[in-house]
Structure formats: structure tokens, C-alpha cells
Amino acid sequence: xxxxxxxxxxxxxxxxxxxxxxxxxxxxxxxxxxxxxxxxxxxxxxxxxxxxxxxxxxxxxxxxxxxxxxxxxxxxxxxxxxxxxxxxxxxxxxxxxxxxxxx
Length: 103
Prior knowledge:
The chain has 1 helix and 3 strands. The chain is of the alpha+beta class. The longest helix is centred in the N-terminal third of the chain and has 18 residues, at 10-27. It is elongated, with a radius of gyration of 25 Å. The N and C termini lie far apart (51 Å).
């Protein structure tokens, strides 16, 4: 907006933009954009199952887990959502477990 003399009235122009910015800041987690609580490194218990690396994936058939788990085979489509409590077993082309991790 311009006043009678031709100067820009900055305060009024920022009204809607400032309100939008304030709305976005209100939605940010505590601690800023990257803040919040960092994910727990081993919330799913993967550290205690590292001995499974190198074992055939069929060894998982008889195991029961209290938390969600999934077996990821080569080329298999999986969701990319991150769940700190989910246990993931990556399996190689040879059918052996190559990696155990949370996510």
C-alpha cells in the first residue's frame, strides 16, 4: 500500500504475511525446525539381535516379537515411514539376513 506522498506503508503490507508466518511458527516442534525429541537409537531392540546377521531369513519364521517387525527382501517395495519401535530385517539375494535395524 502507498500513502499520499508515495511512500510504501510496510507495516500494513506485512499484516497478512506476518500472520501466515506466525501460524507456521506455531506449528513447529519445540526447539525449532530440527528440534524435538531425537529418535531413540535402539527402541526396537535391534542391537540385541545382531547375531541374526548371516542367518537364513527362514530362522525368523519361528521367532515372535513384541514389537512390529518386517522382513525386507531385495527389490521389495516398503513404506518409508519411520517407526522407532519397528524391527527391520534386510535380506540379501542369497536369502540370508544382511542387516537388523529399527525404523
